[in-house]
Structure formats: structure tokens, C-alpha cells
Amino acid sequence: MKKTIAALLALLACGAQAQDYPTRPVTMIVAFPPGGVAELVGRPLAASMEKTLGQPVVVVNRTGAGGAVGMTAAAKAAPDGYTILMALSSISIFPESDPLQGRPAPYQVSDFMPIALVTADPTVLVVRADSPFKNVKDFVAAAKANPGKINYSSSGIFGTLHVAMEMFANAAGVQLFHVPYQGGGPAVTALLGGQVEALASGPAAAVGQIKGGKMRALAGWGAKRLDLMPELPTFLELGYKDVEFYIWSAVVAPAAIPPNVQHRLRAAVRAAAADPLFTGAMAKVGTPISYLDAPEFKDFWVADAARLRKAVQKIGKAAGK
Questions:
Q1: Is 257 in a helix, a strand, or coil?
Q2: How do residues 106-118 score in pLDDT, each as one tens digit?
Q3: In what order do the strands lie in the sheet with 246-254?
Q4: Would you say 26 and 84 are in contact if contact means Cβ atoms under 8 Å apart?
């Protein structure tokens, strides 16, 4: 009887705390170093969310293992709404890829509660502006003539940028050399510094370098051309199949957060996505906002996870070495 009363009181206390949410700062985990898509979207979004929540939203970079460290930390955080994750599409990859490498999955997609999708851009294949590769035809010809010699950087083994490049390599029938880094920012730096020859990049992380004459884009992974780069062909246009890939960013939280806390977070992201502070920041990096509230985002996520599952299984163990 005493245990039952204690449990009831605990539930009532949790409910009261949830009703008052938030009463202290909220932590937004970004699982990658500065310079990548999660950072470029996450920081201005957090600043705009503060207006609705009435509390600071503090961005914390929890990097490592291609994003798996930060994602796992978010999955295992207390489900009280005080820890949220600025997730990328790679959140769906690790539960599939780690078992292929003989490791237990660090988390499952079901460990997360969808809050809202914020952006969804196809990746683009970029090289340095002084690269001999003027187009995809040049790149593929060189890769076929030099198997395993042309290298590319990524945000980490089986991260979004790695999977995108291997999808293309499989479709083109070429073998490339993968050089993983600890995030999209360092991967871009490696390309600009001459350590690697190519990169699959989110448009937001590359557009400034392209406009500045330091990078050249060769093709995009989307089903249609980017409004930002209407002259850029898609791989589908060039005859490559099964290479549709998007880097999306979204806010998610531990799965067991109370419904009213989820609703409060949804309202905060909804308002932030329309806030001039945030829309202006996205306009500067050429990233269109693709807002979807939780129910629609959940459907989008399920479909995208199925596509990524198929891609990871096709890549197999060899690509993770």
C-alpha cells in the first residue's frame, strides 16, 4: 500500500513538473563538431526556440564515432525534455551499421521521440576548384582507371556523407578510398586543405566555398535539382540509379518524454522555424526550411530509414573497414 501511494505521488510530481516545463535551461546536443549541417541549423534554431520556451536552449557539441556518441547520449538522457538532439539522417544508420561490424547497436530509432523536421537537403558531390575533375564523367573515368586511389573525406564511418559516397560508388561501379573524420566541418577542411580529392557535402556546408571559388560541385543526390544550384545535374539525370540521398536535420527527444512536454517542444520548433532570426540564418547558407510537425515527420523518417537500411546492407562490411 505504501509503495503504491509512493508511486502515485511520484507520478503526480512528474506530471506537475511537466506542466511547468521548462523551469530551467534545455540542452540541445549536436553530435558533430562545428562547421557541419547540425551546427549550422542547430545554433540559430536553439536561439529562436528560447523565445517560446522562455528558457535558454544551450547547444552542446558531443562528438565522436561519426555522431554516434552524441546520439547515444541523447537516447539515454532522462526523458524530461531537458535534453534534446539536433539529429541528422545518420541517426537511422547506426542501428543498422554497427551490427554489420560485429558491434551491438548503440541505440534504436525507437529510443527517440520525433519533435519536428527542420531541413532536408540532398547532398552534393564537391571537389576543389582547382581539381582536374570538371564533371562526374571525369571523376568516374579517373576512379575506374585508378581503383581505390581517389580518396574522399566524410563525417565518419557509416555517417551520412560516407553512405552517400558509397551509394554513388556502387552505382558507378568504382572503388574509392574513404578517409573518415569526426564531423562534416573537419571533412570540408580536409578537402580544402588538399588531404582528399572529393566530398559528399550538405549544400549549407559547401555553398559558401562554392560561391567563394574554392569548391566545384559536380552533381547532386536529390530526385530533382536544387533551387540553390539549378545548373547542377542530379545523379539520376546522369543515369545512376539508387543514389537518392538527403541530409535532413530534425529535433528529437528521448522516447518517454511526457506528451505535454513533447507538445511544448513541438510548439517551440514550429515557432522557431518561422522566426525571422532563424529563416534569415538559413537564407545566408542557402538552406531551405522543410518543416514537418511530429506526425508528418514520423512518416518521413520511417520512409527515409527504410531507404538507408537498404543502402547500408548493400554497402556491407567492406565499406566500414
A1: coil
A2: 999 999 999 999 9
A3: 57-61, 26-30, 83-88, 246-254, 112-122, 289-293
A4: yes
